[in-house]
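As a point of orientation, let us examine one representative protein, giving the amino acid sequence and backbone structure tokens.
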Amino acid sequence: MQNVSRPIAVLAGASGFIGPAVEAAFAADGYEIRRVGRSAAVRWSDAPALTAAVDGADVVVNLAGKSVDCRYTDANREEILRSRVETTRALREAVARAEHPPRVWLNASTATIYRHAMDRPHTEAGELGTGFSPDVARAWERELFADDLPRTRRVALRMAIVIGDGPATRMLFRIARLGLGGAQHDGWSLPHRRYRGIGDRPTGPDTAPWYRTHGRQRFSWVHIDDVVGAIRLLRDDDAIAGPVNISSPHPSDNRTLMRTLRRVVGMPVGLPSARWMLEPAMWALRTEPELILKSRWVLPGRLTGAGYAFRHPDLEEALRDAR
């Protein structure tokens, strides 16, 4: 019997929450896996090894980047930006050097690239935001799409908040179980500069903006199974390039999210909170109020247009599955 070699997938920065699920899916699809990361066989600092890893690969998936589930101190802000931009640049340069570059490169990005939206949802043609998080996303995608790589299709995975056994979901469940799962209201708080712009093209005001949301800020989300499903579709559909929103077609809002969380964890009460109350609470949890106060209203225009069928389109079912 003739020996048929398996296609090769390069998985970069795959040690976090999403990476193991993607790796398991690709292995089940028959791929040979090459890993890139700080503790992987191929290190980011070894340019020749990185070039050898991508040379001859069918697909590259880059999920590298420091978690945003932290306080936005100056040191963390710089590391959030650096860990995304520099790893993406290293991969782009390796792909450019490869004699047989990959057919497709799927690079993580974020749906937080869009502006705070209470008036209408954003598809991939939506209006980009300003300030720290959108600036990080812009710089990230600039590195991905820089220069000419004619033999490699590039896709930016603009992911919404991912529901599963990850940091964002754990934080939400923790808040609900503590009886703090009421609606969260944006509004005035002591001014700070943690969300100011960053990088060589900083945007937005110097101090953090706030909005009167009355707990109706939008919550766009996606289940981890649909992240994997979308990546599989984008890997295989040669017609799709550029930015793609990875989000459920049924975004919620904060009031509905918190009410659903209370129901899922069996907590009958949930104290509502304003930004000035959330600031010290999130400081104690070592994370940022922006993660639950920014109105993220995103629709997966290109995925639905390509016929993707979501496995978990309902928020309550997705949360129960992740509990």
In short: Residues 74-97 form the longest helix (24 residues). The first strand starts at residue 8 and ends at 12. The mean pLDDT is 95.
